[in-house]
Design a protein that fits this description.
single chain; 178 residues; mainly alpha; 8 helices
Length: 178
């Protein structure tokens, strides 16, 4: 925490940052962990998110509002997605060398959508679309809460969710390009 505070100039911003750190650190970690599925990588993403928050302290007016929480979560998620992409590029394997494993039990494989495909499709969506879908389905925010976070009307949020779901479905249907 001292490292972060050393980077901040004014006492008011230091108090604001301490409040953000103490109250939202776990939420940010959870958001990063949901994407990365690795504790150390999630901690790195939260650390980078706090460094980015320091650069944007002037954009945070009030600390105890859902808009601020959403802002911090979206920053953390974007950094986690960058980590995920970087890790994916580093550990690419040649799947043609591996034999597929087919089991007789479980749901029909044709009816299931691979989570990696969904994540890749979400990464290809515009930032506004992926953010609204993540806030709605990954974090469970209501339409009213998302509207407050993104400073939109509830009707606009419903429309964005609808459009984003259609775009995501189109990307998943194409499948090969994802």
């Amino acid at each position: 925490m001292l490292l972060y505070l050393a980077l901040i100039d004014t006492e008011e911003e230091k108090r604001k940052f301490v409040y953000l750190y103490e109250n939202y650190r776990q939420t940010m970690y959870y958001a990063a962990y949901q994407i990365l599925k690795n504790a150390h990588s999630a901690e790195d993403a939260v650390h980078q998110a706090f460094l980015r928050v320091i650069d944007h302290m002037d954009q945070i007016d009030e600390t105890n509002v859902s808009k601020t929480k959403g802002f911090l979560v979206v920053i953390t998620q974007h950094i986690a997605i960058d980590h995920y992409r970087r890790r994916k590029r580093e550990y690419l394997t040649d799947f043609t060398e591996q034999e597929p494993i087919v089991t007789e039990t479980g749901p029909d494989p044709a009816s299931c959508v691979d989570t990696d495909l969904i994540v890749q499709a979400l990464l290809k969506l515009p930032v506004d679309d992926s953010a609204v879908l993540r806030l709605k389905y990954a974090h469970g925010y209501s339409g009213a809460e998302i509207a407050a976070i993104l400073d939109l009307t509830e009707a606009a949020v419903r429309k964005r969710i609808s459009r984003a779901k259609k775009r995501l479905a189109k990307l998943l249907a194409e499948g090969d390009d994802v």
